[in-house]
């Protein structure tokens, strides 16, 4: 609405102009009709004006003199001047004073309409510019500690916001999470019942921030009541959480208020049900330190994972998650914990030459704010983790293959152990078995067979002194004495005879 004052010493013209302006609708309202410039000046303390339409020729104080004096009080109000004289000198002087238009009496209705709508358009642009500037300053101080901002930037934002009715005195900050996502305009309408100055800002996915003025008539539970009122006004199907700060004063406290509200939101995010609200006055005392999720994993989950004891790993993971949820860990802690879990799984898969990549995608999707509550996040996390542990099940099966081959070698080491024969026992191709065995143990199958045979030979050399060294070689799978001596010395560093004599000493 454009608020207008009409100033003319001729009553007929003054009233006629008021009536004429009234025909252009509710966008334009005459809030003062004055017979002189002094009368307007006397009343200006109680008026908020967008446009003053004044006669130039008036006794005691001309319209131009009045404009000059009004400018000293309010540099933003706009002017249009009236005159019964088609005198260019007046027009030139009026333009020098920065008036919007110069209208001749009798006023042409089309010219007046064009003036009014032009002023309205300019006012709308100015309001939009101010709104954008307020938004930018709010975002800046909500996101950043003042001490970390360039001094001129911080001071400018504090100064401009301090001039607004929203942050001139006390205020509170609310952080709202909605599922499905809500538009700032919809939340603006939902907070109409608050009956107070407020600003709704689209923040991050699923999040909106609301700064609201707190007045002298408010009480200790006002913030809690405002939060619950907002939740009641949201659609019944909406899942929502609201965190609210305490009461603060001055724009410099915006960041502190935001962090309080965000912490409250993250705490009540764990509450059951479709809607929940928590404010800083009723929030539980925060823990001195958040748990280190990576260190907690080292206790049970990591050892079980390395042993491929997947059942125990799953149980450890569920216990680990229950612990974090019981502590109502911050979203950051949950995010870091999720990444640590999938990093461990990825490392284990690499160790076992399994494909990697999916676990990184799963971890990236586990952003707490994207889930309506803690229960939904937990379900998604466990489902993703169980899928990745299942992928390690194939590695566990391959590990059993290696153990089977080892057991066969330890039982049949005196026999001819060709690779094909070993592969047939586990139903694999020789090439695949050879590669798998090397991957799992770090040594070739041939090296393993040699190590088993030499260990058995060492045992017999000690426990069966009556047997000749060549006889021991035959009994561990080396019928050729020369070859047995060569292999034994390569592995042990001594011939079989030297080894037996040294052990006896």
From TrEMBL:
Q: Which InterPro entries match?
A: CdaR_GGDEF, CheY-like_superfamily, Homeodomain-like_sf, HTH_AraC, Sig_transdc_resp-reg_receiver, Tscrpt_reg_AraC-type_HTH
Listed Pfam families: GGDEF_2 (PF17853), HTH_18 (PF12833), Response_reg (PF00072)
Q: Which Gene3D superfamilies match?
A: 3.40.50.2300, Homeodomain-like
Query: Could you provide one GO biological process annotation from this protein's UniProt record?
Result: phosphorelay signal transduction system
Q: Which residues carry this modification: 4-aspartylphosphate?
A: 55
One GO term in the molecular function aspect is: DNA-binding transcription factor activity
Please list the residue ranges annotated as the Response regulatory domain.
Answer: 3-120
The HTH araC/xylS-type domain covers which part of the protein? 403-502
Looking up CDD domains in the UniProt record yields:
REC_YesN-like
Q: Which UniProt keywords apply?
A: DNA-binding, Phosphoprotein, Transcription, Transcription regulation
Q: What is this protein called?
A: Response regulator
Q: Which organism is it from?
A: Cohnella zeiphila
Instruction: Print the organism lineage.
Output: Bacteria, Bacillati, Bacillota, Bacilli, Bacillales
């Amino acid at each position: 609405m454009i608020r207008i004052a009409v100033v003319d010493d001729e009553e007929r013209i003054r009233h006629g102009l008021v009536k004429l302006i009234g025909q252009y609708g509710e966008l334009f309202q005459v809030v003062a009709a004055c017979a002189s410039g002094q009368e307007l000046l006397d009343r200006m303390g109680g008026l908020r004006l967008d446009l003053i339409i004044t006669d130039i020729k008036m006794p005691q104080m001309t319209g131009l003199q009045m404009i000059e004096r009004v400018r000293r009080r309010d540099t933003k109000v706009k002017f249009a001047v009236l005159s019964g004289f088609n005198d260019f000198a007046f027009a030139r002087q009026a333009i020098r004073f920065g008036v919007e238009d110069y209208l001749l009496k009798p006023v042409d209705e089309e010219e007046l309409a064009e003036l009014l709508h032009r002023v309205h358009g300019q006012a709308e642009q100015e309001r939009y510019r101010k709104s954008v500037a307020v938004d930018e300053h709010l975002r800046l101080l909500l996101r950043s500690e003042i001490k970390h901002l360039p001094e001129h930037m911080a001071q400018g934002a504090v100064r401009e916001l301090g001039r607004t009715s929203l942050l001139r005195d006390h205020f509170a900050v609310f952080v709202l999470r909605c599922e499905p996502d809500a538009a700032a305009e919809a939340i603006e309408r939902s907070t109409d019942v608050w009956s107070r100055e407020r600003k709704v800002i689209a923040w991050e996915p699923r999040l909106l921030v609301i700064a609201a003025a707190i007045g002298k008539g408010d009480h200790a539970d006002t913030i809690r009541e405002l939060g619950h009122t907002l939740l009641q006004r949201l659609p019944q199907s909406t899942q929502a959480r609201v965190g609210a700060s305490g009461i603060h004063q001055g724009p410099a406290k915006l960041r502190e208020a935001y962090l309080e509200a965000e912490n409250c939101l993250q705490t009540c995010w764990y509450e059951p049900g479709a809607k929940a609200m928590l404010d800083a006055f009723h929030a539980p005392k925060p823990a001195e330190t958040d748990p280190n999720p990576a260190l907690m994993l080292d206790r049970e989950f990591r050892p079980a994972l390395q042993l491929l004891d997947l059942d125990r790993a799953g149980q450890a993971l569920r216990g680990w998650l229950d612990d974090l949820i019981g502590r109502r860990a911050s979203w950051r802690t949950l995010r870091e914990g999720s990444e640590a879990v999938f990093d461990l799984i990825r490392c284990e898969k690499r160790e076992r030459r399994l494909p990697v990549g999916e676990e990184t995608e799963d971890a990236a999707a586990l952003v707490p704010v994207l889930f309506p509550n803690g229960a939904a996040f937990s379900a998604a996390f466990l489902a993703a983790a169980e899928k990745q542990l299942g992928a390690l099940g194939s590695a566990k099966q391959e590990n059993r293959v290696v153990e089977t081959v080892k057991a066969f070698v330890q039982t049949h080491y005196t026999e001819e152990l060709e690779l094909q024969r070993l592969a047939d026992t586990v139903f694999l191709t020789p090439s695949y078995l050879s590669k798998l065995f090397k991957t799992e143990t770090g040594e070739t199958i041939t090296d393993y067979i040699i190590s088993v045979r030499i260990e058995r030979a060492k045992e017999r050399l000690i426990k069966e002194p009556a047997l000749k060294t060549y006889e021991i070689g035959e009994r561990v799978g080396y019928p050729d004495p020369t070859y047995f001596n060569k292999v034994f010395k390569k592995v042990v560093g001594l011939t079989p005879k030297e080894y037996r004599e040294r052990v006896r000493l």
